[in-house]
Write a structure and sequence with these properties.
Blueprint: E1 3-10, E2 13-19, H1 22-32, E3 37-41, E4 46-49, H2 50-66, E5 74-78, H3 83-95, E6 98-102, H4 108-118, E7 120-125, H5 134-141, E8 163-166, E9 176-177, H6 178-182, H7 190-199, E10 205-210, E11 220-224, H8 225-239, E12 246-249, H9 256-259, H10 261-267, E13 271-274, H11 280-290, E14 294-296, H12 299-306, E15 320-324, H13 331-339, E16 342-350, E17 355-359, H14 371-378, E18 383-384, E19 390-394, E20 410-415, E21 422-423, H15 427-433, E22 439-447, E23 453-458, E24 462-465, E25 468-471, H16 472-479, E26 485-495, E27 499-508, H17 516-526, E28 535-538, H18 551-560
Parallel strand pairs: 3-13, 5-6, 5-7, 6-10, 7-8, 8-9, 12-13, 12-14, 14-15, 15-16, 27-28
Antiparallel strand pairs: 1-2, 3-4, 10-11, 11-21, 16-17, 17-18, 19-20, 20-22, 22-23, 24-25, 26-27
Helix pairs in contact: 1-2, 1-3, 2-3, 8-10, 11-12, 13-14
Length: 561
C-alpha cells in the first residue's frame, strides 16, 4: 500500500523512501479498528463504525469515478459541517481528486471566483441551517442548470463546472441529490478503485484552500497528502493525544480542513462528533453525554462556553482539552476554563501551513505560577510543531535571524513538509512567498530567549474575527463603491466576544450624507456578512504628506472607541 519516491542507494541495495496517502491512512485504521465508532452526526441521526465509514467513503469514491472525476480533477465542497463533508473529503483523496473547500458564508460572486480559479468540475453543496439560498445562488450563477440534465452542465459563467450534487433529498433541477449520486457507484468496481488509489503518490495534491484575500482576491493554497499526513501526526504530538479520542466538531471543516483534525482523529481511530448548531447548551450536552475529550475553536467558542447559563452547563468527569488560535486567551478566560474542567492550548498557523504549525508548548514548572503569569506565557505563539522543520524570526530583506531578546522586531518565517506546494496559478506570488528558501508569513514578531516567538503586528492588515481572517482591503474596496464615500480605511477594533471586528473610518464627499447603519447595510449587500464593519466613524482621514492614510493612527483611535 505504501508509495515510493526515488530511493537511496546503500551498497548494492536500493532503499526506497516510503509514504502513505490519506486514503490509505483511513484503510489502515478501518482494518485495525473496524468496530470503533468513527462518526456521530447528531443532527443527521448517523452513528457509524470505521467498518461502516470506510464502506461509505468507498461508495462515494466509486461514484466520483463513475461520473468521470479523474486524478487531479477539482471537486468543490460548499457546505457547513455534515457527514457528507467528511465522506467527500476522504473519497476525493482516495480517487486522487483535489478537494476545494469553499467558505459557506460566500456570496454568489465569491463562489464564482472560487469555481473559476480552481477549475472546479463537480460541486457538492448543502444549504446551511443559517441560509437556505445556496441553490438559488447557484442558479443565479449558472441559470443553464435548470435546462440541463444532471451532470451535463455547460455554463457561461463557470465553464469548467459540469455537475452539482446537492445533498438534500429534494429534487433539484439540473442537480443530483446525494442518493442519486451514490447510485452511480455500482458502475465502478472495488478493483478499479483500488487500482486508482494505488497509482497515487504521497506528494500528490489533495486540497486547495483559499486564503482570506489580504491583498485583493483570495489565493488558492495547494496542499499535498504528505503535508496533510504530517500535520495530522503533529497535532497528535503537540496535544499529547492518546488513541481513540472523542472529538467534537465546533470548528468549521472548510477552515484549513478543520486544522487537519479529520485526518488526526482518523489516524487515532477516534470518534468525530458533529453538531448542527454551535450553541453553549448543545456543546455542554455533547461533552457530558458523549464523553468528548477534545475540541478546537476560536476564542469566541470559549466565550460561548463561559457565558452559558446555569441551565445550559453540565458536569462531566473526563479531562477536556481545547485548542484555540488567533487572539491569545486573557488570564480571566484561562482561569474560568480551568475551573470548568477544560485545559486550553494556544496555537498559531496560517492557511499556507495547513492550519496550526506553532504551539505554545507548556512546561510543567509553569503550573505553579499565578494565573496572570501563565496568561502572559500562553499569549506567546510558541515553538514549531515537531513536523515543521524550520521556524525563525528574521530580517524581512536579508533573512538574518533577529536576536532572541524578546524585543527586536522581525518577520516570521517557516519551511518544511507542512508548508504548501504553492499558490494555484500564481507563480509570481509563489516565488515571492518562498524567496530565499523560506516561506514569508508576513506576520511580524519577536523571538524570546527560550526560543518562543510572539506576534506583535500583522503586516498585511488582517483582521481576525471569531477565528476568521478578514481582509481590510476587501472591505475598503466595497466602501469605495458607495456613492457618498470619498475615502475609507478599515482597521481592527478589539472586541470582547469576537477578538477583533472591522472598524471603518469613512470620509464623505462634500455635500453628501450617510448614516452608520446605511454604510454597514451597504457592505453587507456586497460582502459576506461576517466581513462587514461593525462600527463606522465619519471624518477626515489622517494622511502622510504624500497622501497615504496613516492606519497606525486609526488603530489607536479604534482601541479607544
Amino acid at each position: 500500500m505504501s508509495k515510493t519516491l526515488p530511493s537511496y542507494t546503500s551498497g548494492t541495495a536500493e532503499v526506497p523512501l516510503l509514504g502513505m496517502t490519506i486514503g490509505e491512512m483511513l484503510d489502515r485504521t478501518a482494518e485495525k479498528y473496524p468496530d470503533n465508532e468513527a462518526l456521530v452526526c447528531l443532527h443527521q441521526d448517523i452513528r457509524w463504525t470505521y467498518k461502516e465509514f470506510v464502506e461509505k467513503v468507498d461508495e462515494a469514491a466509486r461514484a466520483f469515478m463513475a461520473i468521470g472525476v479523474k486524478r487531479g480533477d477539482r471537486v468543490g465542497i460548499w457546505s457547513p459541517n455534515r457527514y457528507e463533508w467528511t465522506v467527500t473529503q476522504f473519497a476525493t483523496a482516495k480517487v486522487g481528486a483535489i478537494l476545494v473547500n469553499i467558505n459557506p458564508a460566500y456570496g454568489v460572486h465569491e463562489l464564482q471566483y472560487a469555481l473559476n480559479l480552481a477549475g472546479i468540475t463537480t460541486l457538492v453543496t448543502a444549504d446551511s441551517f443559517k441560509a437556505s439560498n445556496y441553490r438559488e445562488m447557484i442558479y443565479e450563477l449558472a441559470p443553464e442548470l435548470k435546462r440541463s440534465a444532471p451532470g451535463k452542465l455547460k455554463a457561461d459563467n463557470v465553464p469548467d463546472l459540469r455537475a452539482v450534487i446537492n445533498v438534500h433529498p429534494d429534487n433539484h433541477e439540473g442537480m443530483w441529490t446525494w442518493q442519486d449520486f451514490l447510485g452511480f457507484a455500482g458502475d465502478v468496481s472495488e478493483a478499479d478503485l483500488a487500482k486508482r488509489q494505488d497509482e497515487l503518490q504521497f506528494d500528490d495534491p489533495i486540497n486547495i484552500q483559499f486564503t482570506s484575500g489580504t491583498t485583493g482576491n483570495p489565493k488558492g493554497v495547494v496542499y499535498h497528502h504528505r503535508g496533510a499526513y504530517l500535520l495530522a501526526i503533529g497535532n497528535i504530538q503537540v496535544w499529547g493525544m492518546s488513541p481513540h479520542p472523542i472529538y467534537l466538531w465546533t470548528l468549521p471543516m472548510f477552515h484549513c480542513n478543520g486544522w487537519c483534525f479529520p485526518w488526526t482523529i482518523t489516524a487515532l481511530a477516534g470518534t468525530h462528533v458533529c453538531l448542527r448548531n454551535v450553541r453553549a447548551g448543545a456543546i455542554y450536552d455533547t461533552i457530558a453525554e458523549h464523553g468528548v475529550t477534545h475540541l478546537c475553536g476560536a476564542p469566541i467558542v470559549m466565550q460561548l462556553l463561559l457565558g452559558a447559563s446555569e441551565e445550559e452547563k453540565r458536569d462531566f468527569d473526563q479531562q477536556v482539552k481545547f485548542m484555540t488560535a488567533a487572539a491569545p486567551p486573557p488570564a480571566a478566560v484561562l482561569a474560568a476554563m480551568q475551573d470548568a474542567g477544560i485545559e486550553v492550548t494556544h496555537v498559531y498557523g496560517l492557511t499556507e501551513v495547513y492550519g496550526p504549525a506553532v504551539v505554545c508548548a507548556w512546561h510543567q514548572e509553569w503550573d505553579g505560577l499565578d494565573i496572570e503569569m501563565q496568561a502572559a506565557l500562553k499569549s506567546r505563539q510558541g515553538v514549531n510543531y515537531p513536523v515543521l522543520e524550520g521556524l525563525m524570526v528574521a530580517d524581512a530583506e536579508t533573512l538574518a535571524p533577529v536576536p532572541r531578546d524578546g524585543e527586536t522586531l522581525g518577520e516570521v518565517f517557516m519551511r518544511g513538509n507542512v508548508v504548501m506546494k504553492g499558490y494555484l496559478k500564481n507563480p509570481d506570488a509563489t516565488d515571492k512567498a518562498f524567496a530565499g528558501g523560506w516561506f514569508h508569513t508576513g506576520d511580524l514578531g519577536v523571538w524570546h530567549p527560550d526560543g518562543y516567538i510572539e506576534l506583535k503586528d500583522r503586516s498585511k492588515d488582517i483582521i481576525i474575527s471569531g477565528g476568521e481572517n478578514i481582509s481590510s482591503i476587501e472591505i475598503e474596496n466595497a466602501l469605495y463603491r458607495h456613492p457618498a464615500v470619498a475615502g475609507a480605511a478599515v482597521v481592527a477594533k478589539p472586541d470582547d466576544k469576537w477578538g477583533e471586528t472591522p472598524c471603518a473610518f469613512v470620509e464623505l464627499k462634500p455635500g453628501t450624507q450617510a448614516e452608520e447603519t446605511e454604510i454597514i447595510a451597504f457592505c453587507r449587500n456586497h460582502l459576506a456578512h461576517f466581513k462587514a464593519p461593525r462600527k463606522v466613524v465619519f471624518g477626515p482621514l489622517p494622511k502622510t504628506s504624500t497622501g497615504k492614510i496613516q492606519k497606525f493612527v486609526l488603530r489607536s483611535q479604534a482601541k479607544g472607541l
